[in-house]
User: Which sequence fits this backbone?
């Protein structure tokens, strides 16, 4: 639905359906979103200062949080649940998250676990969280052994993507968010280049909503959303998150095009299109100099999709699909042939991830 500059997209999951509303100022729709949950009180967990947090319309506790992979831990979830308990949050109250994807992920998991599940409303503040992390119900935290290893599916009651938040982002973080928008080109969202930003967000969310409605629990079709992510996740780990999630997915998308080309699945022109689309958004396209090919291949072998050898979502004559058992030497040769960029400097505390 379109109202002025607001777009509303429904994630259609029967009794767990909800709306994602996108546009300037939509954070002020929070009281209506909270009222729909029936909550009499809420805990608002925010990685943004109080002045950026709208009035939820019911008595609330404000809990400050911090975006960043290093805080996306079980310890954070435990701390949040303790705050919910101290406040006396009941099963019929609700939680609100305000922050980037790392915050919506940890708060979503805390909401899923507290009293075995309380409603959560997400107000994603980074581009990455607006186009991907806050939509679709995946919640998770990291372990020292790997990313997103502990989590669950817990659909939010509403998502309010206020584009005013994006004006507060450091440039590198904003550009990183385009990594998830760029990969949409190859998973059926069409060419989003040239559209106003709120339209790009809406189109990305609409494509994600279609995919999630078909495969909420990631048993098949939802793998498409992992386009560019197999190398992307490996790069995040290999650089200890100095490369952000969006930057890593961007490089992973260029690599996915090259790998599909090396396997004869797409012509050279389509391989080149991967580079063009990622470049268009000002995203990195080369491997950072500090990562080594064998280390990346080892990390990719740990990917959750890799149940039958090295596995990637790759473009092909019928569109993108899951391709298992990709020969190791083809993967290594494709990585070796990629351009190299200078050593990566860290993105800092506001690093984001979905
Ligand atoms: N970010 C990938 C997914 O939601 O499935």
Assistant:
């Amino acid at each position: 639905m379109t109202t002025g500059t607001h777009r509303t997209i429904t994630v259609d999951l029967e009794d767990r359906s909800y709306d994602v509303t996108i546009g300037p100022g939509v954070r002020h729709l929070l009281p209506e979103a909270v009222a729909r949950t029936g909550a009499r009180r809420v805990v608002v967990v925010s990685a943004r200062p109080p002045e950026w947090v709208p009035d939820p319309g019911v008595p609330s506790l404000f809990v400050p949080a911090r975006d960043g992979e290093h805080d996306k831990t079980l310890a954070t979830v435990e701390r949040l649940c303790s705050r919910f308990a101290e406040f006396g949050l009941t099963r019929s109250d609700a939680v609100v998250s305000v922050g980037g994807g790392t915050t919506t992920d940890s708060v979503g998991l805390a909401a899923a676990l507290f009293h075995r599940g309380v409603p959560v409303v997400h107000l994603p503040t980074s581009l990455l969280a607006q186009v991907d992390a806050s939509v679709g119900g995946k919640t998770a935290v990291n372990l020292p052994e790997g990313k997103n290893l502990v989590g669950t599916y817990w659909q939010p009651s509403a998502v309010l993507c206020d584009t005013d938040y994006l004006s507060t982002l450091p440039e590198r973080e904003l550009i990183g968010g385009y990594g998830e928008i760029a990969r949409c080109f190859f998973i059926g969202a069409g060419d989003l280049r040239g559209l106003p930003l709120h339209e790009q967000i809406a189109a990305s969310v609409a494509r994600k909503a279609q995919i999630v409605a078909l495969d909420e629990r990631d048993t098949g079709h939802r793998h498409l959303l992992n386009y560019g992510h197999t190398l992307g996740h490996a790069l995040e780990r290999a650089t200890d998150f100095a490369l952000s999630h969006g930057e890593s997915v961007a490089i992973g998308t260029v690599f996915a095009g090259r790998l599909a080309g090396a396997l004869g699945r797409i012509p050279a022109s389509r391989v080149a299109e991967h580079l063009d689309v990622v470049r268009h958004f000002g995203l990195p396209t080369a491997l950072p100099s500090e990562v080594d090919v064998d280390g990346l291949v080892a990390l990719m072998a740990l990917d959750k999709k890799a149940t039958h050898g090295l596995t990637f979502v790759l473009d092909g004559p019928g569109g993108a699909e899951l391709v298992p058992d990709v020969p190791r030497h083809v993967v290594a040769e494709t990585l070796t042939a990629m351009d190299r960029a200078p050593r990566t400097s860290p993105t800092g505390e506001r690093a984001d991830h979905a």
Q: What stands out?
A: The longest strand covers residues 146-153. Residues 132, 136, 138, 218, 222, 225, 354 surround glycine (CB under 6 Å). The longest helix spans residues 197-214. The chain is about 40% helix and 20% strand.
